[in-house]
Design a protein that fits this description.
174 residues; alpha+beta; Ubiquitin-like (UB roll); DNA polymerase, domain 1; 2 domains; 5-stranded mixed sheet; 5 strands; 2Fe2S_fd_BS; 2Fe-2S iron-sulfur cluster binding domain-containing protein; Beta-grasp_dom_sf; metal ion binding; metal-binding
Length: 174
């Protein structure tokens, strides 16, 4: 008689609109499941400690660092990577703004920056304040300071921050 394996779980993820079934070790991160098991390479492994944001994706519409999320915790979730933001062959407005503002250099952090920016713009649109929001009773104005604060979990080794802030500001007006 075969003993059940209590260290593995079967799960289903919808990644960039495609349903994917897989079996994972319960300790596997979502980042490793995406990259190593599903060959989804848009989220990058940077620090593997949740400090750089290179692995950021949208999980059911909210931005998360996949290196700190267990894959089993995402069972049944919709995951959108930067690659999945494209619609009908057109770049997402945030990605288009990154292109127009030259908001990347080496590009390693760009997928995480774009996913984080999309999530951040949705948070701001819903009225969620940040640490630098002047009046938490009002919807925050997306000033450069607001954008910098809200994107502070995403690092860029090339220091393209002025262009990243400009790109997000441009995307916010679209």
């Amino acid at each position: 008689m075969t003993q059940p394996d209590h260290h593995h779980s079967e799960l289903t993820l919808e990644v960039d609109g495609i349903r994917r079934d897989l079996s994972v070790d319960n300790r596997m991160t979502l980042l490793d499941a995406l990259r190593e098991r599903l060959d989804v390479t848009a989220p990058k492994k940077g620090c593997d400690h949740g400090q750089c944001g290179s692995c950021t994706v949208l999980l059911d519409g909210r931005r998360v660092t996949t290196c700190l999320t267990f894959a089993v915790a995402a069972d049944g979730a919709q995951i959108t990577t930067a690659a999945g933001l494209e619609q009908n062959g057109q770049l997402h407005p945030v990605a288009q703004s990154f292109y127009e503002e030259d908001a990347f250099q080496c590009g390693y952090c760009t997928p995480g920056q774009i996913c984080s920016a999309v999530g951040m713009l949705d948070e701001a649109k819903s009225g969620a304040p940040s640490f630098v929001t002047d009046d938490v009773e009002l919807s925050p104005a997306l000033t450069d300071d607001e954008i910098r604060e809200r994107m502070s979990g995403n690092l860029c080794r090339c220091a393209a921050y002025p262009n990243i802030v400009a790109a997000i500001g441009r995307a916010a007006t679209r």
